[in-house]
Design brief:
By secondary structure, the protein is mainly alpha-helical. The chain has six helices and no strands.
Amino acid sequence: MTGIAHSAEGQRGSRLRPALWGLAALLVAAPLLIMQFTKEMNWEGEDFLFAAVVIGMVGGAAELAVRMSRDAFYRAGAAFAIAAAFAIVWASAAVGMIGDGDNNFSFMFLGVIGLAIAGAALARFRASGTALAMAVAGVAQVAVAAAGYAIDPNGAVISAVLGGLWFVAAALFRVAGQRGAR
């Protein structure tokens, strides 16, 4: 009976996967449609390539997280961590997290993502260790934002608020760990 339930769940997931990847493709293609109606958006080939790579990495990370654990809190924690990383990359590439993209703060924020990934990997992606890694990433995010406050107060505040995504991820991973998830 367990094998049948597992098989049915796997089939449900496999039907959903193409729809989600289709949505990702639509997100990458949407600017092409928007450009037909406004001159405000003017993407070139490398912009579409960047969007495809970033959105593809988000999709790949989400698929990996789903395979890592069946626990809903673990998956939600992964979703918040992925959202934090995506927001940092997208904002850094588009306008810069603090000031314009020509200062070192964007690179420091990318380091926060590296810190989160390295910490989770050192914890072997176990929920309790990954919770600690996400909390450290949150602290690092807020610290970099505070350091950039003098340059761009608005960008620093927004960047610090984005740090909250790391803290939510940490809390969710912590609950998953307490529930005995991977």
